[in-house]
User: Fold Glyoxylate reductase from Guyanagaster necrorhizus.
Amino acid sequence: MQSSHLSTTTKPRVVICRNLGPDVMPLLEGRSDVEVVVWPEDSSCDRKWLLEQVRGAAGVLLMFPEKADKALFEAAGPSLRVVSTMSVGYGAQFRPPIKLSQRSTRSTEHIDLTELTNRGVKLGYTPDVLTDAVADITVMLALMASRNAGSTINLVQSGEWPKFRWAPFAFCGPQISTLPSSPDRTVGFLGFGRISQATLKRLIPFGITSCLYTANPHSPPATDRDTAILSHHPTLKTLRRVTADELARSSDIVFVLAPGGESTKHLVDEAFLRKMKKHSVLVNASRGTLVDSDALAKALSEGWIWGAGLDVVEGEPNITLDHPLVKEPRCVILPHIGSASIETRIDMATLALNNLLAGVFGEELPAELKI
Ligand SMILES: O=CC(=O)O
Assistant:
């Protein structure tokens, strides 16, 4: 393994934009059939370094901060066979650092799929292995947003707890689990793929009996799948594909778990938020671009909805203390850590590496995005 490509070898060269850690990097040891170049520092890969190293490479393994855009494809040239992203998302929003005052809703992809397909380059990604980790954190966000975790943790960490006088209804929020005294809870999913289904599975033991979802309008009904889910979970009484309008009006918790990109941009906008129940909670663990941040901040400050739990925010990571959502006490924000469990990240890194090597040697990728 080396950190520059000055060798004269004719072996295919792969560029890896981050050290993948002690559990995964050893998989490359003893590989004499490939020249490996790894960004040598423990930080985001420098763009200039990447564009230099990728010249003549057969494969590149990258993650969100790095863009596989036109400039990268041009720098790599015709030798490039595979781009392997250590993520399930490939249409992530990416923005260069900008000031809040210059915030715009413009978004671009972290992988330029048009360039990729025009050049016949394969794309490896990491679906499935992160489903459980993201579903776990999605449920955690629903609980945190409902039960005021943001403002109460802040109370403790700012040293204000001693000043707080216990009161019967202080910091109370809506309960997710169903009580005999309360009506059955309905959850709504914008997008009903693997992560949504895994989230629903975790919520059924909370007493959730009704689930609504929306799907890509071009996708056919998934009647067999829904019948199988219902028969597997006898306490779930309803599982129905509905319009976004019905979902907003009927759900106690709305989970945003659809892919990013232009077609889903601001799916949750002011009109959607105005239809939601007053005690409902919005959770977004997919892409920031799906939710209009300004509309959500207004919904929270004017009390149209109860709270929000976000793992992703439009314009991340440039979310600073003056961001309107950071200022909202009922908004819990995590810095895009949905898949960040040790086990999952090892699995993702391993899959990304296997995708990379398979692509370089013209083999079938373990997880290829068929575009
Ligand atoms: O957001 C995380 C991913 O796409 O893997």
In short: The chain has a mean pLDDT of 92.
